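Standup notes
- DV: blocked on the single-chain target, sequence here:
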Amino acid sequence: MLLRNTDTSFININYAENFTLKPSTMENKNSKTFSADKFTAKAAHVISLDDYVDIDNLINLQQKYDANYQLLKKQEELLSITSHELKTPITTIMLFLSLLEKLTEKEENPRVLELVQKTETQVNRLVKLVNNLQDMTALQNGKIELRKEIFNFSALVKSCADTFRLQNPEFELIIEENTIIDIYADSLRIEQVLINFISNAIKYSPHAGRILIYVESTLDLLKVSVTDSGIGMPEAALPHVFDCYFRAYPDDNRFKGNGLGLYISKEIIVQHEGEIGVISQENKGSTFWFTLPFQKMD
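- DV (later): unblocked, structure below
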C-alpha cells in the first residue's frame, strides 16, 4: 500500500522509541483521507519521505524488529542462566584444587604442584570470564548495581599491588600518591577496575619492567592512573579502547582476551559519575586513568 505524503514530512523510526506518521492526514491516489495519529511502530533507521510511504514495508519492518528483539531477549536469558549455573561447579573445582595444592606441598612433589598451579590459573581465567558475562548481562538489562561504602582508597591500592607483586615478581610495581583518603564508592567494583588496569599493564609488557600506580586528589575528585612501558597502542585504536569486544591486537596470540574488561570498567566508572581515559603511544607504553568525584553518602 502506497500513501502520498502531501506535506513532504518525515517518519522518525528508532529502535528504542515509538515513531508517529506525520502529518496526521495523508492522501492516497484516490484522494481519500488516511488518519495516522495512532499509527506507531519500532524500527532501526530514520526514513525521509518526499512522495510515498510504503505501509506494507513498515509493517514488515516492525515484524522483523519484533522477531529480532525476542531473539535478543532469549540470548540474554541464556547468557544469564549459563553464567549463573557455571558459578557453582567452578567454585567447587577451586576448592578441590586448593586442597590438592596443600596435599601436594606436603608430599614435596614439584611436578604435580606445578600442574595444580597451572590448572588453578586456567580456572581463574574461567572465573573472570563468567564474572564478565554476568556483568554484561547486568549492563544489558540496565546497569550494574553499586553497593557503596566508605573505605580507605590507599589500602585498596596497596592490597591490589601486593597481590600482583606476588604473582609477577619480575615486574616492579610502584605506588605514588599525594594523599591517604577515605572515599564513598563501591569498593569491589573500583577494585575490579584497578585490577583490570594493572593486569593489562602486565599483559601488554612482555619484557616486564616498571608499572607506576599514581593516586592524586583535588578538592572535588580522586584521580588514579596506571602507567606501563609496554607495547602501547596505535593512535587509530584509541577511540575504540573502551568499546565492547574491542581488542587492539586481535591477531596477536600472545595477548589473550575477550574485549570485555575495559568496557565493563568504563561502565563502572560512568555509574560512579566519574571519567575514564587512556594515553598511549605505540612501542612506548600506555597510561590508563579514571576519576571519582567525592560523593556524599546516599
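- Follow-up: The CA atoms of residues 49 and 55 lie 12 Å apart.
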